[in-house]
Amino acid sequence: MTIATRRPLVWSDLVRHSGLGPCDWHVAGVFAHNTASYGATFHSEPELARFLQFLFASPTKPATSRLYRRATLYPARPEHDLSILRFQFDPDHQVAAAVVLADDRHDQVYQWMTRGDAGHPDATLVHDSWNEHNTLLPPQSHITIPQLRTAITAWAFGEQIPPPAVGWTSTGGLIWF
């Protein structure tokens, strides 16, 4: 069941593996740009920071990127994902937006979308590049690229979801493919 909530969650409240410590999870990502697709796993903030520096240096808008905060269990399965963050940025207009999905111990699904005032009338951002017409993010969700970088790191290695680094709107109406 998907619900909207104004309250943030704490990682330990999340479903299935709420007792995991920092050594028992990692952040995995899928990043697509032009004809290339990159898969990466991050175990520390410096690893993620180096990759984000590479990603945000792109002179053109990439496809939607996906990050998974995942329990370190093998083989990896979707139910091992503690939370998902999807984001897209537009270097021409210097805007970005993100959405976060999480579920708690009671199999409640929570969704948030960034909230900002960096919207540009010519910028189009989505949370699923393969279903752009169904996943358009409104201009009210647009934040700056530096804000996105901070939010990604806070989501990946912080304690609160959504991360307090930027504003978020709780929503139950996002379509996830």
Describe this structure in words.
With 177 residues, the protein is mostly beta strands. It has one domain. It contains two helices and twelve strands; from the N terminus they run ββββαββββββαββ. Helix 1 (45-56) packs antiparallel against helix 2. It starts with a strand and ends in a 7-residue tail after the last strand.
Provide a quick synopsis of the model.
This protein has helices at 45-56, 145-157, and strands at residues 2-3, 9-10, 25-33, 36-42, 65-71, 81-90, 95-103, 109-115, 125-126, 136-137, 160-161, 167-170. The protein is mainly beta.
What general outline do the C-alpha atoms trace?
globular
Rg is: 15 Å
Main sheet specs? 8 strands, mixed
Number of helices: 2
Kindly report how far apart the N and C termini lie. 16 Å
Fraction of residues in β-strands = 35-45%
Query: How many beta-strand segments?
Result: 12
What layout of secondary structure does this protein have?
Blueprint lengths: L1 E2 L5 E2 L14 E9 L2 E7 L2 H12 L8 E7 L9 E10 L4 E9 L5 E7 L9 E2 L9 E2 L7 H13 L2 E2 L5 E4 L7
Parallel strand pairs: 1-8
Antiparallel strand pairs: 2-11, 3-4, 3-5, 5-6, 6-7, 7-8, 8-12, 9-10
Helix pairs in contact: 1-2
